[in-house]
Amino acid sequence: MSSYILDPGIYKINPNTECVENLFLPNIAWDNRYGGLSTDGSSLFHSQSYIDKNINVLEFENLNTTRTFSIQSDCRYYSDIAFQDDSIWAVAKVDVLNPDSYHLLKISAIDGAVLGTYNVPDGTQVNQNYGMTFDGIFIWLSNGNKIFKISPDNGNILGTFEVSFGPEAMSNNRLESLAWDGNHLWGASFYGTIYQFYISENNE
User: Fewest C-beta in 10 Å: which of 46, 62, 90, 144?
Assistant: First the structure.
């Protein structure tokens, strides 16, 4: 997972021990901010949310950049990303204050071409930072205290789940990134807490 304000960097976390195994500071941050992360199993993909449309492909050992390509879209602001087959999913917008400019995009991981454009979940526009990941079957998208299950075939929303951060959580806490470890869904909140979510056999 990456951190874009608090102790910025890209963190390698062991899901079994819940401990940080390594911290990387590749030279791809803007204003000490790292963006969305996802993997195809052999490389790490990084999107810089604010400054450009570039996707950096990083090798696993030292997170050196091996390839860079640009997303072919008019949008500028991109969310956390999810890798599915040869595609990358992201929420993007032209104007952060214009609800109509928010879109869920399916993007080619080869050349950055936009392969599909879909609606974001109602009520999530003009909210900060979407988390996103792929579990091998579904796209999972977070916004605020909600997690959405999305079909990668057509972008349809298949389920909505509300997250409770606990009684001691700040009132404006929110999930900002998601990850999948093969068994569980993980979410990192704005205030730095990482949550583990269990998905049943019915993907609920």
Answer: 62
Q: Exposed (0-12), middle (13-18) or buried (19+): which is 98, by Cβ within 10 Å?
A: exposed
142 vs 12: CA distance, rounded Å? 21
Contacts 24+ apart (CB under 8 A), 165-168: 165/189, 165/193, 165/195
Copy the structure tokens of residue 31.
């204003």
For residue 151, give the 3-state DSSP assignment.
coil
> Which of 163, 164, 170, 167 is closest to 190 using CA atoms?
170
**Residue 3, pLDDT above cutoff 60:** no
pLDDT in tens, 9-24: 898 888 888 888 999 9
DSSP-assigned beta bridge partners for residue 150: 139, 157
The residue that leads in pLDDT, 42 or 126, is 42
Encoded tokens for 91: 């929420």
* Global pTM value: 0.89
List the domains of the chain with CATH numbers. Answer: 2-198 (2.120.10.30)
